[in-house]
Amino acid sequence: xxxxxxxxxxxxxxxxxxxxxxxxxxxxxxxxxxxxxxxxxxxxxxxxxxxxxxxxxxxxxxxxxxxxxxxxxxxxxxxxxxxxxxxxxxxxxxxxxxxxxxxxxxxxxxxxxxxxxxxxxxxxxxxxxxxxxxxxxxxxxxxxxxxxxxxxxxxxxxxxxxxxxxxxxxxxxxxxxxxxxxxxxxxxxxxxxxxxxxxxxxxxxxxxxxxxxxxxxxxxxxxxxxxxxxxxxxxxxxxxxxxxxxxxxxxxxxxxxxxxxxxxxxxxxxxxxxxxxxxxxxxxxxxxxxxxxxxxxxxxxxxxxxxxxxxxxxxxxxxxxxxxxxxxxxxxxxxxxxxxxxxxxxxxxxxxxxxxxxxxxxxxxxxxxxxxxxxxxxxxxxxxxxxxxxxxxxxxxxxxxxxxxxxxxxxxxxxxxxxxxxxxxxxxxxxxxxxxxxxxxxxxxxxxxxxxxxxxxxxxxxxxxxxxxxxxxxxxxxxxxxx
DNA sequence: TGGGGTTAT
DNA sequence: ATAACCC
Length: 483
Hints:
This protein is α+β, with helices and mostly antiparallel strands and 483 residues long. The chain is 41% helix and 19% strand. It has helices at 14-29, 35-48, 68-76, 98-102, 111-117, 130-144, 163-172, 175-179, 201-221, 233-240, 256-261, 274-282, 288-293, 296-303, 305-315, 344-365, 396-401, 410-424, 454-457; strands spanning 60-65, 85-89, 92-96, 109-110, 122-125, 150-153, 157-161, 186-188, 225-230, 248-251, 331-341, 368-378, 388-393, 433-444, 458-461, 472-475. The longest helix has 22 residues, at 344-365. It is globular. The structure holds a DNA duplex (9 and 7 nucleotides).
């Protein structure tokens, strides 16, 4: 394409070039332009786009399912559709459908308040996350078909980096299709904006892909949700919530400041959590503009360089963090909370329950955890939210017993976890727990042994000679290409 | 306040 | 091992 741009156009600024380019493209699409000029226009147009790898031209979508647990429950039991529905975990209603919200019920209300507000409210128990987790991964896997780079955030949100996919579509588009590009869904904008501007083309294509994603999620899984399309994760996430159930919004670059200013408090910025908000408020910072204009030096001294620089950039709507593929989970955990657990037998029974579910999950996954962790929460603690944990490696002979489908690993795992418990809690003293959680982490693929090493050909055997205390091996089937 | 998850220190 | 963040 070098040399295509005429010399006399070299001095013009970029915005002027962009709108002129579209006028010329539209004129070309009308059908009157001679062949060579039309071709020049298309090449010139592609020249105006920023390089695909440049950080300012990323296209990110944030997909956020509507009241996810409630949707899953309505799919499981269609009789719940049309009724006000809440999903309950212990005394908390963690989410509810839109029928319930119309009647004044809010997310994360206590069950008592919710029933008071809405006596007809139907409640289902959502403490077992199995079906939610399975549906959640189906959504992520479906989105991965559009672009392999998908990052999960909780069970109901996903980020997808569409930059490369958008680039591919742009290059396949014909002249007439290029000028006829339209947005899908809402545009976040207070000012009037020229959608035909070249600077917006990638985001428009992104909005169309987002619409296709939502269609696929609805058609194949029966779930509705919102999407936000923008140039980074922060903005995509913020803009996805602008039009709320089952709609999507694209953020054009000139409106990004409006979007961050629309947040009335810094705690609304994803990445600024409870603790940081408190520390910022102590510094007199409460609005987004407060944070933007606050001294960087003082902020760095107060919060440390990394946090200070990151959150101050966030306040300007800047976020260069990449979308990182989540892939399979890094850990599996099961927890249960209760009013009181204060004896060894109670603890052991709870741990057996938690482990039974975990062993099933680990079996399904196929990988092997090499670390177990026990987490507890004590009652009397002045900090009710604080937890203590102990972890240890899982002995290799126990790892071997995992994932065989039966419960060979149950007894040894209970013994290990009870040791961790005794390490944390002095059982000669009275104790009062309000939560127990067991976590399997440090997951490794079954065969890490590489071709050409002895371990690759020798696979540990469970069936023979266990009494000797020595490991026994069977020869693996070999193939000619192994040699 | 539940039952999960992640990364940084 | 804990602390922060996310849902």
